[in-house]
Amino acid sequence: MTDAVFISAPELTEIAHLRHAFFTRQGGVSGGIFASLNGGIGSNDEREHVLENRARMCRALGVAENRLVTVHQVHSPDVIVVERQHPGERPKADAMVTTTPGIAIGVAHADCGPVLFADRRRRVVGAAHAGWKGAFTGVLENTIAAMEKLGAQREDIVAVLGPTIGPKSYEVGPEFVARFRESDAAFLRFFSPSQKEGHAMFDLPAFIIMRLERTGVTAVNFASDTYANEELFYSYRRSVHCNEPDYGRLISAIAVF
Do 36 and 232 touch, CB atoms closer than 8 A? Predict the structure, then answer.
């Protein structure tokens, strides 16, 4: 297989001026625990394999091989505007927005929620890496605000959540639950009982969709459980449970033309 395998969302596919992809782990050259379409520059995979995988992603998106832009993700609420490929060290942030044609902005993930944004009428797009901390501290709302500064209109923005760890796979401890309860008692609806005493199962996709819906954009839950589907997706939590030394990173990306 020489083509990067990806999933596309109908709500974004129908927008003529963009291309997008929620890439799976299939269709790359990496081996072992990274098999096969590992896009993670920060992983311990062989760099030439990662670069070839990302080149395949670029071809799938219809952009030049050096036009896939990612950032150094730190689980923050921070967003940057992208106009060109970053020279040198990648900036630290967890979301990007752009109006520049032919640049694909992408987020790396392996359980956290990838959210791709597009204005249906205007050539403004965004990509956000939304783990629990980013979603909790405002990365989604900040991405939308950054798009508006570039000319997007909130009522025309569609935001699609891609492959994310599911509510049956995400067990958390009491301190985690307490943090959400102290912020807003209504957040307790995103937790369900766990078989482990004092723990709970967290519905990250539902929490992300709620945060998006609160902003007034069209929010689409296109998530599949990354933990439960080893054939298609990498999962950080699964790698921990399997005592693996590292894990591959999925890439979800969007480009405007």
Answer: no
